[in-house]
Write a structure and sequence with these properties.
Layout (H helix, E strand, L loop, with lengths): L2 E5 L6 H12 L3 E3 H6 L7 H8 L1 H17 L4 E4 L8 H10 E7 L2 H9 L12 H19 L2 E4 L6 H14 L4
Parallel strand pairs: 1-3, 1-4, 2-3, 4-5
Length: 175
């Protein structure tokens, strides 16, 4: 098995599901934010994004993921919600394994995201409109690149969702 890349909208459950599926399957798990964090000097990923800007941050993310992929065989890697905007990263993942889009409905996601504060990619004066545009664009890109789309539904029971996700991955012969 090559790498499995879990992608999706910010706070859709990518990292939680990747960690739980890793435990169920015995496949190593890593989070792309942690890989990027290892390249920073005590700075948070969010602070680095704000300081460096989007383009420089995406380059840093691509380099961290590329380095990780080159040193590992089988793994589950969860990506940040903005991976869809990083075409070189999406292309690298497509060449290096299977992309699994963990999808949740747009109307469920904005309240979840806002519980953690307003992210830099949203317009604070038009939260709903800007989120709608971002969601539509990223959803289209993730669907275009995905080898498998898994609708996480309302995402109530995370362990049950992980068992279902692992079963779908087994059915697709990805694990």
């Amino acid at each position: 098995m090559a790498g499995l890349f879990f992608v999706g909208i910010k706070h859709s459950g990518k990292t939680t599901q990747a960690r739980l599926v890793s435990k169920l399957t015995g496949i190593m798990f890593r989070d792309a934010d942690d890989l990027v964090l290892e390249t920073l000097s005590g700075e948070s990923v969010r602070d680095a994004y704000r300081r460096e800007g989007k383009e420089a941050f995406m380059k840093r993310e691509l380099e961290a993921v590329s380095s990780f992929i080159s040193g590992n065989g089988s793994f589950i890697l969860s990506l940040g919600g903005g991976a869809a905007d990083n075409t070189p990263l999406m292309d690298l993942m497509k060449r290096s394994g299977r992309i699994v889009y963990l999808m949740r409905k747009e109307e469920e996601m904005l309240p979840v995201i806002l519980r953690h504060g307003i992210p830099a990619f949203l317009d604070k004066d038009d939260l709903e409109g800007s989120f709608h545009r971002v969601y539509e664009r990223r959803d289209r890109i993730y669907r275009e690149y995905a080898d498998l789309v898994i609708d996480l539904g309302s995402y109530g029971d995370k362990e049950e969702t992980a068992r279902r996700t692992a079963a779908l991955l087994r059915e697709a012969r990805y694990v």
